[in-house]
Specification:
Length: 123
């Protein structure tokens, strides 16, 4: 009976720990999806269609994030964007080691790209 109780407590602790891990910081979800390009929905606490300035401020405020460059069009994480798109490249220097691209058009967030791993590609 004691072993069963210890086992159940250990299982509950593991479930609570994983829940906290994924909810503590939206970037922790990269553990299950290390790269991608999103053009609808939500990711990293951002929503497609929100103001680009607001999205940039939210990402820049996360611990370990730094803006690497902002450009009109160009290449980011293997995707090319036209000159009418604002492309903001952020590096994540936390333990996650990755990069995030915010792509905007007409002042609105149009796409979110990300790549995480041991050797992220910023270009």
């Amino acid at each position: 009976m004691v072993r069963l109780l210890i086992g159940l407590l250990a299982l509950l602790g593991a479930v609570l720990g994983l829940t906290w891990f994924f909810l503590a910081d939206p970037r922790n979800l990269v553990a299950v999806n290390p790269d991608g390009l999103l053009s609808s929905g939500k990711r990293f606490g951002l929503e497609i269609g929100m103001p680009m300035k607001q999205a940039a401020a939210r990402m820049s405020a996360l611990p370990g994030m730094r803006t690497l460059k902002v450009m009109q069009g160009g290449l980011c994480i293997g995707h090319a964007f036209q000159a009418d798109r604002e492309v903001m490249v952020l590096g994540d220097d936390s333990w996650r080691r990755g990069s995030v691209c915010l792509i905007g058009k007409s002042g609105r967030l149009e796409k979110i790209g990300w790549q995480y791993g041991f050797w992220p590609t910023f270009d």
